[in-house]
Write a structure and sequence with these properties.
- The structure is a homodimer.
- Chain A is mainly beta.
- Chain A has two domains: 109 residues, no CATH class; 67 residues, Barwin-like endoglucanases (Beta Barrel), CATH 2.40.40.20.
- Chain A has four helices and 15 strands.
- In chain A, the strands form two sheets. In chain A, strands 2, 3, 4, 5, 6, 7, 8, 9 and 10 form a nine-stranded mixed sheet that branches.
- In chain A, a hairpin with a 4-residue loop joins strand 8 and strand 9.
- Strand 13 of chain A pairs antiparallel with strand 13 of chain B, so a sheet runs across the interface.
Chain lengths: 188, 188
């Protein structure tokens, strides 16, 4: 009942409208390297996040483009920026705060879309059958080692396009002192 | 079986020798505010940590002075500095890396003393009796809420001068989304 874990650093998904403003009209993102989830990729492009208390420079853009811009940071990043971002599932942006985004061609005053991504597991329906879980189940994940811990409330997301992997943010990964690709245990 | 949790940000404990170099001969630290553990205090003074990959400015000095300088950072801070700090109990500095420390009067090339503090619980012998634990026991601590988790391998430290409190670093605290003073549950 093991699966690999991956640490997500702060990043941003952009709409084409916001790409136009930040990088220039009809600008196309430049793939830098593929991510583990099929079709997803890190881009050469980076932007700055400008909050009322501080700025975070060089935040990586992930592709492909999305319908709505989404910025994923850690709780510590929110403190640096001076904005309290809620812990939310990707795509659940209703009522979340915005943030100013600065690119080489201009700035976007994002009205909503700043979140701390809640930890979750990607798996396909075969994996789900093997683990005996269903889409939207909440499970526990146990890590080993000096900083061993058990993450509770871990959301299972099942889609046949998904690669089996648990996603945590850098603070969660460091709290467990786990490395990318390390195997962790699913507990129902 | 509950006790309060506290998040420790990066900080430094200094020997008088290193205070002399960083702030001037026979310089005395200026208390800024008392900490929860009796006799411990945050100081007005701050220093910079200068690593091979990056610098962290404004790291708070804690008092009183110690026999040996000890720098406590997070795993993420170690990445920023470009130094791999081990997860260690306070005072267990043998074989740990050093770091360059910059103060207003000079610089110290610390030879060892850079650690990520391992999570632990301070309690007095009465608390220990109430919780049914002993000095150096490893216990589990359970947190509640959206990011509920169970920290394993939590070291119990018993001393009658201690105030009951669990100490985690900022990454561990944010991984659990707990606030200073929040109550957590001890599990044997």
């Amino acid at each position: 009942m093991k699966l690999p874990i991956a640490l997500s650093n702060k990043h941003i998904h952009l709409s084409q409208d916001d790409i136009n403003t930040l990088f220039g009209q009809d600008y196309k993102l430049t793939p830098f390297k593929p991510l583990s989830q099929p079709g997803q990729f890190a881009c050469e492009e980076k932007v700055d996040l400008v909050g009322p208390k501080g700025t975070i420079k060089g935040v990586r853009v992930l592709g492909p483009t999305r319908n709505q811009t989404q910025v994923e940071i850690s709780l510590a990043d929110g403190f640096t920026l001076g904005v309290k971002a809620p812990i939310r599932e990707s795509g659940d942006l209703n009522g979340t705060p915005g943030i100013k985004i600065a690119g080489p061609n201009g700035e976007v005053e994002l009205q909503e879309g700043l979140i701390v991504a809640s930890r979750h597991i990607h798996m396909n329906s075969n994996d789900a059958k093997n683990f005996g879980v269903n889409d939207k189940d909440l499970v526990k994940i146990k890590t080993e080692g000096q900083r061993a811990l058990v993450f509770e409330n871990v959301l299972v997301r099942v889609n046949d396009s998904y690669q089996l992997e648990m996603h945590v943010d850098v603070e969660e990964g460091n709290a467990a002192a786990v490395k990318n690709g390390e195997l962790v245990e699913l507990i129902k």
